[in-house]
Specification:
This protein is 68% helix and 0% strand. By secondary structure, the chain is mainly α. The radius of gyration is 17 Å and the shape is globular. The termini are close together.
Length: 184
């Protein structure tokens, strides 16, 4: 990713922390939440790896194709899960955006002979992804505001099952995606 190292490290920390929380959410008793949390953890950690500033670490040439393959598999899984509900469309969009950025970074690293990462993709596709994720941030942010927290949590509801925390995770990752797409 292009951009200042300090903002890159902040994005790495934010995405890694979100991924770690999503891993904890995988302990939920609700089957659907466990599966969603797994995909979101993968997204958080993948975004954290992708956001590492180029001045700190230049990944080997094979890293970007591997990341693209991992998110292609995640995208296929999300596409299969869309049959069960439209809520998985966002995971499909996120996986697609990660594949797109990994391919752009792979192309950039081969054109710069491995000296740095980050690259420019197709402006129209980058713009379309930006529009989607900005709209998602705005809609999710509005939905997050009216959620009232019950003091001490709802009866029988574990801290990993709280809907406002799951929405906050998705919001954080969407904001991170907007930041990463802006650097392309």
């Amino acid at each position: 990713m292009h951009g200042p190292a300090s903002s890159g490290w902040l994005l790495v920390a934010l995405c890694a922390a979100t991924g770690a929380y999503c891993l904890l959410r995988m302990r939920s008793r609700v089957d659907e939440q466990r599966h969603a949390a797994g995909g979101e953890a993968l997204m958080g950690f993948g975004m954290a790896v992708m956001a590492v500033p180029a001045t700190a670490f230049t990944p080997p040439a094979w890293a970007w194709p591997v990341q693209a393959a991992v998110f292609c598999a995640a995208g296929l899984h999300a596409l299969w899960a869309v049959r069960a509900g439209a809520c998985h469309l966002h995971h499909l969009m996120g996986a697609g955006a990660m594949v797109y950025m990994a391919v752009a970074m792979a192309a950039s690293s081969t054109s710069t002979h491995g000296h740095g990462h980050g690259g420019s993709g197709i402006p129209l596709l980058t713009g379309a992804l930006l529009l989607y994720f900005v709209a998602y941030v705005l809609v999710t942010g509005v939905r997050l505001v009216p959620v009232t927290a019950v003091p001490g949590g709802a009866p029988g509801l574990g801290w990993g099952d709280r809907p406002e925390l799951a929405r906050a995770c998705r919001l954080v990752m969407a904001i991170g995606m907007v930041a990463m797409l802006l650097t392309m």
